What does this fold into?
Amino acid sequence: MRIHNFNIYDHDDSRVILNSYLEKRRRENSAFSVRKWSQELGHSSHSLLALQLKGKRKVKPQHIEKFSRTMGLTEIETRYFKGITILEKSTSEEEKQYTLSHLSQSIPKRLIKTKKLKSFHLISKWSYMAIMALSELKDFVIDERSVFERLGHRLAKSEILEGLSLLVEQNLLTKDGQSYIPTYQSIVSDNDYADLGIKDYHRGACDLAKDAIDSVDINEREFQSLCLGIPKEKIPLAKELIRKFRDDFYQAMDGSGSDVYKLNIQFFQLSRSTKEQSSSVAREFADRM
It folds into this structure.
């Protein structure tokens, strides 16, 4: 069934595509469920679809025809969806670039430009992503002068030049005369992936947030915080909801902007777990008394 407000081209992740469609179809029909969708797909059980929606089973190219039929996709939309699943299976950079080129030929108005990094150690500074984000501003041309005009209050000219040079070296920007063109639209890493560069990036992002409390006008920022007790078994759900919010926020805000904004989302354990408690805790308490 085709949903009028569902646009498959808004997404470049197969799991996000499925979840977005499910959410919008439920809005039109509250009785629609994973089980009913599985029946439409011709499955004897809803378990496969449930696992795919959670990201625990991959959406494979051979599944797309059935999804296309139940979602009412056009031929070109089906080709796009299948291309996404092939891209997700690609293991080498050459494979990914080949698939991306075919996707862009099928859909000339939307070239997917996503770079998944296995290591952030070479682009661990917040400034590198800020420079990339400048390319999303309306009528903005990335060059040394324009970047300095926008970020010079936070970065020295040498840091900007270093950033531009490194982004070109990492094939994230391409130099065109005196200006720079983004090679990719978004930079991502694997979830739950420990990397020193990613840690450095988040440290820098937290420092920016602390500084913004005093330096950014209250009408240009929003800070919220809460503490709550959560059972351990709900931690994966909490992380999934946060990631979904991030994706939804990006889709809603995406477009020709006037300024670059930074969104930080922090969620972490604050209290000690029972298993971390020991006699050393008692000694520590006694030492403080």
In short: Residues 108-113 have pLDDT under 50 and may be disordered.
